[in-house]
Design a protein that fits this description.
Largest sheet: 4 strands, antiparallel
Low-confidence stretches: 14-31
Helix content: under 10%
Radius of gyration: 19 Å
Order of helices and strands: HEEEHEEEEEEEEEEEEEEEEEEEEEEEEE
Mean pLDDT: 89
Shape: globular
């Protein structure tokens, strides 16, 4: 429920005002290799204190706000995602209606304005899609020139996470909807809408299939599920029903397994070709606002706490054994690995 309330509040903020994007003055900082685990800290609503933090797995240290260290300015309101394209970082800041672009050393390059940017997906060397969670279009950018295309992709609702397989992008509809939109990336055309159940929250490509997590409807006791979609048929072939429903979540693939969360304290593990759903794999000490899996199998869980103060990151081994907790920035929601 907190995720839905925060999205609604962000929508009202965007309608009320569009933040201006000003290029900051360059600053000289000490040498840094910027390798490690990036923590995406959404920020407390209305405070403008979203940030990107860096956890160094070698010396086990955490440095918050790596962009402010370079620019002297905060990222803004509701930092949602980080995508690396062509050795540049594209940071979607939903509540500030912008995507900030940084070099590999986090030196500021440019800022692009969008209605409500959520996620960015590279679909060719010169083209990437930007979803807008509160507007019925997908924006197109050229990541080599850092420019926005005049063309947009019209869709029936707001959009969220994306994946690409071959020549098609599969794009989740926004919260409260139930579709995966299919777009051909050569001509940017919407060719299909696949019904996957209410509130799609996560999507991955694995084993020649598209897997989509939807969180269900806790109010009406509709359980979440994972749908399996044929890439060519664009049909739901089967689904795994989860044992609960909640108000958020995500889906990842690693080592032949699917990992799913609904936004509560449970992380599920499902073998890719299993015929039935498994029980929870990890029970975290707090709600799982986001998670990701490093290349070595370590599982990083973002615990947003009370959604006002600094949150926690909990680290587990690939076997689900607890390893470490550290304090992150305000409202951590995800991770980006650069090791």
């Amino acid at each position: 429920m907190k995720r839905m309330i925060r999205l609604t509040a962000v929508a009202l903020m965007i309608v009320a005002t569009i933040s201006s994007c000003k290029k900051p003055t360059d600053e000289i900082v000490e040498a840094e290799d910027y390798k490690g685990v990036y923590v995406i800290n959404e920020g407390a609503f209305g405070k403008g204190n979203g940030s990107i933090g860096l956890y160094k797995t070698g010396n086990i240290t955490y440095q918050d706000d790596v962009t402010k260290k370079q620019t002297g300015l905060p990222l803004g309101e509701t930092v949602q995602s980080v995508t690396k394209i062509n050795d540049k970082y594209f940071v979607a800041v939903t509540g500030s209606s912008k995507v900030d672009i940084f070099g590999s050393d986090w030196k500021f390059i440019s800022s692009l304005s969008f209605p409500s940017p959520r996620y960015i997906l590279s679909v060719s060397p010169t083209k990437a899609y930007v979803t807008n969670v509160f507007y019925n279009n997908i924006s197109i950018i050229d990541p080599t020139t850092n420019t926005i295309s005049a063309s947009q992709i019209a869709v029936p609702s707001g959009t969220d996470k994306m994946v690409m397989d071959s020549s098609k992008a599969f794009i989740l509809s926004g919260y409260g909807k139930k579709f995966v939109y299919v777009v051909t990336t050569a001509d940017d055309k919407l060719i299909d809408s696949i019904d996957v159940g209410l509130n799609p929250a996560g999507i991955v490509v694995a084993g020649g299939k598209i897997y989509v997590l939807n969180t269900g409807d806790a109010t009406n006791s509709i359980k979440g599920r994972i749908s399996v979609i044929g890439i060519n048929s664009r049909k739901v072939e089967r689904f795994y029903e989860l044992d609960a429903s909640y108000y958020g979540g995500d889906l990842k693939y690693y080592g032949g397994n699917l990992y799913a969360s609904l936004g509560n304290d449970k992380l599920y593990l499902i073998q890719l070709n299993a015929t039935s759903m498994s029980t929870s794999f990890i029970t975290a000490p707090g709600s799982i606002y986001g998670f990701n899996i490093n290349t070595n199998g370590d599982i990083y869980i973002a615990d947003a706490g009370d959604y006002v103060n600094q949150g926690k990151v909990h680290i587990y081994s690939s076997a689900g054994v607890f390893q470490k907790t550290f304090t992150a920035g305000f409202v951590p929601n995800g991770f980006f690995f650069n090791e």
